[in-house]
Amino acid sequence: DTGVSQNPRHKITKRGQNVTFRCDPISEHNRLYWYRQTLGQGPEFLTYFQNEAQLEKSRLLSDRFSAERPKGSFSTLEIQRTEQGDSAMYLCAGKTGSSSDTQYFGPGTRLTVL
Amino acid sequence: GENVEQHPSTLSVQEGDSAVIKCTYSDSASNYFPWYKQELGKRPQLIIDIRSNVGEKKDQRIAVTLNKTAKHFSLHITETQPEDSAVYFCAASKNTDKLIFGTGTRLQVFP
Fold first, then answer.
1. Nearest to A45 among B34, B43, B98 (CB)
2. Would an 8 Å CB–CB cutoff place B2 in contact with chain A?
3. Do strands B45-51 and B32-38 pair parallel, antiparallel, or not at all (unpaired)?
């Protein structure tokens, strides 16, 4: 167990609905990353935070996606007006400061858009 | 753009044999190379990593080698066991930045 938790673990929604996922890293994780993984593929980077500051966003992150980390602890990822192509596993990972390179992944939230 | 290629996509070995998975990265500034194991429906778990100032690293039955000139790194698993069966992902990053993952290798170890 990496100590990183994600909720919900599964989400089924209808096309056009909004969904929000939550990631809770451990307190030492000042960096928090979001990735998306589709079936048979490796995780793809979406965005990351250093404490509460969002430092980088992938071009995969369309304007329907928004992420926050308001207090530098937990983070949320919201998808507005979901599309079937958004169906994937959404993974978050935490990392401590510059003394460590290791990213510790949460169990993921599997999103299915009908 | 940044890219990591991984081969083979599937690998079947007999228990006790060795398995080798190879990756190539495109960004010469990459300096950190982790390997993750992902079992069906579970999170990716780090099994070994290597930094660019080291050419080889071992941890029991697992080893990773890095060739910076060729921008190539490999995972070696010796004396494979059925519980090694999973999908393995290589990744590359620079300055502890985001990870760029390969497409994965499904390893099956037959008893």
1. B98
2. no
3. antiparallel
Question: Tokens representing A69?
Answer: 């980390």
The H or E element that residue A111 is part of is: strand A109-113
Provide the edge-to-edge strand list for the sheet that holds A75-79. A5-7, A19-24, A75-79, A65-68
| Angstrom distance (rounded) from CA B100 to CA B93 | 6
Q: SS3 of B82, please?
A: helix
CA-nearest residue to B90 within chain A is A42
Residue with tokens 């960096």: A31
Classify residue A52 by its DSSP letter: T
Q: What is the pLDDT along chain B (111 residues), one digit of tens a residue?
A: 689 999 999 999 999 999 999 999 999 999 999 999 999 989 999 999 999 888 999 999 999 999 999 999 999 999 999 999 999 999 999 876 899 999 999 999 999
Q: Is A105's CB within 8 Å of B43's CB?
A: yes
Structure tokens at B15: 């228990």
Nearest CB to A98; choose among B44, B91, B96:
B96
Residues of A in contact with B93 (CB under 8 A): 101
